[in-house]
Amino acid sequence: MKTPSIHLNGTSGDELLTQVCDVVHGLNQALDLMAKAAPHGRDYYVQGDDVFSQARREFDDRVKRIRSVLKEYEEIAMAVSDRRDERLTRL
User: Fold this and answer.
1) Using CA atoms, how far apart are residues 19 and 7, in angstroms rounded to an integer?
2) Looking at residue 86, what is its pLDDT?
3) Residue-range definition of the domain harbouring residue 71
4) Domain count along the chain
5) Are 13 and 91 in contact (CB under 8 A)?
């Protein structure tokens, strides 16, 4: 995965880290909201026996995709933080 470089002509390390951490925070909020909106059997039973199970699988797949993106952004945040710290120690 490609991660940003920190240099004089680019976005500052602090700003890059803030931006990426904002995304991490937003994705965590999205996961919290998704958990509150998880499928419940009472909302599906009138549609047939297998509908709730399918809805649950679809929901779990959506959560898995968000968690995957979250993990990538956490890795980006670590890389930016490390590069920022390296740059600060050189100054």
Assistant:
1) 16
2) 86
3) 13-90
4) 1
5) no
Amino acid at 11: T
What is the rounded CA–CA span in Å between residue 27 and residue 85? 25
Q: What burial class does residue 74 get, using C-beta atoms within 10 Å of its C-beta: 0-12 exposed, 13-18 middle, 19+ buried?
A: middle
Q: What is the CA radius of gyration of the chain?
A: 19
55 assigned to some structural domain = yes
Structure tokens, 22: 């904002």
Q: Distance from CA of residue 86 to its chain's centroid? A: 25
pTM: 0.90
Residue 8 is assigned to a structural domain of this protein: no
Tokens, residue 62 = 């959506």
Average pLDDT per block of 10 residues along the chain, 91 residues long: 94 96 98 98 96 98 98 98 86 63
